[in-house]
Design goal:
Elements: H1 2-8, H2 15-26, H3 31-42, H4 48-60, H5 70-82, H6 91-101
Helix pairs in contact: 4-5
Length: about 110
């Protein structure tokens, strides 16, 4: 492999570029290395994202909210991690959408 990379003058400064070239043109020559590279390139470099996700999940599922189902917890976690900042969130639009879904008692006029 080393002789091939040097002979063909493949880029050695970028691991993903090199393996992309090897995969494209030499996958039959190095099948095990291609599998190893695919695994290595998909592994996270650090665990900060995972730790951040668990931290957000723990902030959502508190002692008082311990009956949340897994699907709802997953949805709320995704919103907290990937959603807009609270300062940029348009609550009026969401409230209007929620109100228009069905007739709600809190929005009916009481005589």
């Amino acid at each position: 492999m080393k002789q091939l990379v040097l002979l063909q003058q493949y880029p050695r400064d970028s691991f993903p570029k090199l393996w992309s070239i090897i995969h494209r043109y030499h996958r039959d020559n190095f099948p095990n290395l291609i599998k190893l590279a695919a695994i290595a390139l998909t592994l996270p470099v650090h665990s900060a994202d995972c730790e951040r996700g668990f931290s957000v999940q723990n902030n959502i599922k508190t002692y008082d909210r311990n009956r949340l189902h897994a699907e709802r917890l997953d949805t709320l976690t995704t919103i907290m991690v990937e959603g807009p900042e609270m300062s940029n969130f348009d609550f009026t639009r969401v409230l209007t959408h929620w109100k228009d879904q069905k007739s709600r008692i809190i929005f009916t006029k009481q005589d």
